[in-house]
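Researcher: Sequence recovery benchmark, item below. Answer with residues only.
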C-alpha cells in the first residue's frame, strides 16, 4: 500500500465547508420541498434528455427532445456512463414505488444500454454514444472515431474509443438494479434479467479474454482501456474495482462457474487489497473523476459481495477514500459512505448531506461561474488541474457550475463555463440518483423527506 501512503501525505490541506458563513447567500430554491424538486427535475430529464432509445443525452439545447430534429441528439462522449447511472436512479425508485410506470422506466434504460453495447458489433464493447445515421452530427471530429453501427443497428452511428469511465457507470447501474430489485441467475424479474445477464456476461468475458483490457473495433486497446489492477507493480484502485466488479456481477446474474473462478483469481492476485489505492493527489492537483469512478465501483462491490471478510476489505477501502474527500460537500460520495461503509455517519457527513440536498438547483441551465471577486471567497495559493483557480475550502453547491454529473466536478473551482449563454441544460440525473439512493437507504433528511 505504498502508493496510498504516498498519496495521503500529499493531500491538499483543507477543512469543512463553513456553512454558517455561506448561509446568507442561499438562493430561494432552498425553500422548495424535496418531493417537489425531484418531481420537477425528473420531468425535465424525461422531456429533454431521455432519447426514445433509452439513452441519456445529458447535455442539450434547452428545449423538448424531438427525435427527428437536427440538434435533438448531441455529439457527446459519456452517454454510456451516465445512462448507467440513470438506470441506478430508476432502479432505486422502482424498488420503493413498485409502480408499472417506474418499471417501464427501468426497462427503457436497460434497452438503451443494450443498444450502446450491441451497436458496436463486438461482444463486450460499449459505445460512448449513439446517433441516428440519418441526422446531421454537430461538431464531429475524426479523432472521436464515429463509426457505422453493426447490423442490425446500421441505422445508427456510434462513438468509439470507449474509456473505463463508461464501464464504471454501466457496472454501477446493473449492480444496483440486480441488488435492489432482487435479480440473480435464479430469481427476480425475468424480463429485466434477460436485458442484463447477456450484456454483463459479454462485458465480463471481453475484459477477461483481452487480458484485462478494453479492445476497440479495430483490434487495438482503447486509449484508456488498460484495466489492470497493477501497472509496473503499482496498485491502481479504480482498475481493480472495475475488474472485480464485472466478474462478481456476471457470477450473480449468470451463474456460470467461470465468472466465479475469474473473480477468485483476481482475489488471489491481491486485487481486493489494491482497491485501497484510489486517491492520487499532490498539492491540489487531482482528477475528481477518479474519485467518482472509485465510489461507483466500491458501492457495487460492497453491494454484491457476500463474503464478510472480503466485503470488510472493500468497506475499509471506501472509508479510506471518503476520509480524503470528506470535506468536499459531495452528496454522492457522502451517501455512498453512509450507505455502504458499515459505520454510522459522522455528524459532519449528516450536516453536509442535509445542506446539499437543499442547495441543488431546479434550474438546470448551463451557467457561467466567476467567483474571483466574491467577498466570501478565499482563493488558494495552489492551483487545480490546468492551472484552474480554486478556493481554500469546497464551495457550497449553489455556487458551483453544473455538469454532466456534478459529483465528479471540482468543488473548489472559482471559474467555469465562462462562455455559457443559458440556452443549454444538463439532465439533472445527478440529483435523481442521490435522491433515490438516499430514499432507498433511509438517508434522506427527515425534515424535507415528505415521506
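Model:
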Amino acid at each position: 500500500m505504498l502508493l496510498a501512503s504516498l498519496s495521503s501525505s500529499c493531500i491538499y490541506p483543507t477543512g469543512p465547508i463553513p456553512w454558517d458563513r455561506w448561509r446568507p447567500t442561499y438562493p430561494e430554491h432552498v425553500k422548495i420541498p424535496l418531493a417537489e424538486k425531484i418531481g420537477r427535475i425528473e420531468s425535465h430529464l424525461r422531456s429533454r434528455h431521455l432519447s426514445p432509445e433509452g439513452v441519456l443525452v445529458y447535455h442539450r439545447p434547452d428545449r423538448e427532445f424531438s427525435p427527428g430534429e437536427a440538434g435533438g441528439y448531441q455529439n457527446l462522449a459519456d452517454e454510456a456512463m451516465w445512462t448507467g447511472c440513470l438506470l441506478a436512479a430508476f432502479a432505486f425508485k422502482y424498488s420503493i414505488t413498485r409502480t408499472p410506470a417506474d418499471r417501464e422506466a427501468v426497462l427503457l434504460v436497460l434497452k438503451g444500454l443494450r443498444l450502446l453495447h450491441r451497436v458496436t458489433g463486438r461482444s463486450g464493447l460499449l459505445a460512448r454514444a449513439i446517433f441516428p445515421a440519418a441526422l446531421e452530427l454537430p461538431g464531429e471530429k475524426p479523432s472521436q472515431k464515429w463509426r457505422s453501427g453493426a447490423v442490425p443497428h446500421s441505422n445508427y452511428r456510434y462513438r468509439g474509443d470507449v474509456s473505463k469511465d463508461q464501464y464504471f457507470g454501466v457496472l454501477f447501474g446493473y449492480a444496483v438494479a440486480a441488488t435492489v430489485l432482487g435479480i440473480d441467475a435464479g430469481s427476480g424479474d425475468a424480463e429485466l434479467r434477460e436485458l442484463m445477464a447477456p450484456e454483463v456476461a459479454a462485458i465480463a468475458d471481453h475484459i477477461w479474454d483481452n487480458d484485462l483490457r478494453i479492445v476497440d473495433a479495430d483490434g487495438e486497446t482503447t486509449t484508456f482501456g488498460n484495466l489492470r489492477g497493477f501497472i509496473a507493480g503499482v496498485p491502481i484502485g479504480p482498475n481493480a474495482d472495475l475488474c472485480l466488479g464485472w466478474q462478481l456481477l456476471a457470477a450473480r446474474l449468470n451463474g456460470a462457474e467461470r465468472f466465479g473462478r475469474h473473480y477468485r483469481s483476481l482475489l488471489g492476485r491481491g486485487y481486493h487489497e489494491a482497491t485501497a489505492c484510489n486517491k492520487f493527489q499532490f498539492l491540489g492537483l487531482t482528477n475528481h473523476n477518479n474519485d467518482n469512478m472509485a465510489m461507483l465501483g466500491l458501492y457495487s462491490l460492497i453491494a454484491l459481495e457476500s463474503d464478510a471478510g472480503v466485503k470488510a476489505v472493500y468497506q475499509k477501502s471506501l472509508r479510506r477514500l471518503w476520509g480524503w474527500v470528506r470535506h468536499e460537500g459531495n452528496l454522492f460520495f457522502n451517501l455512498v459512505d453512509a450507505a455502504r461503509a458499515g459505520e454510522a455517519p459522522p455528524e459532519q457527513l449528516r450536516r453536509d448531506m442535509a445542506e446539499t440536498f437543499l442547495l441543488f438547483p431546479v434550474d438546470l441551465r448551463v451557467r457561467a461561474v466567476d467567483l474571483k471577486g466574491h467577498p466570501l471567497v478565499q482563493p488558494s495559493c495552489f492551483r487545480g488541474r490546468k492551472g484552474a483557480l480554486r478556493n481554500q475550502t469546497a464551495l457550497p453547491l449553489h455556487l458551483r457550475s453544473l455538469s454532466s454529473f456534478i459529483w465528479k466536478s471540482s468543488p473548489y473551482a472559482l471559474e467555469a463555463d465562462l462562455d455559457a449563454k443559458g440556452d443549454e441544460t444538463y439532465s439533472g440525473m445527478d440529483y435523481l440518483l442521490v435522491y433515490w439512493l438516499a430514499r432507498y437507504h433511509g438517508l434522506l433528511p427527515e425534515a424535507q423527506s415528505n415521506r
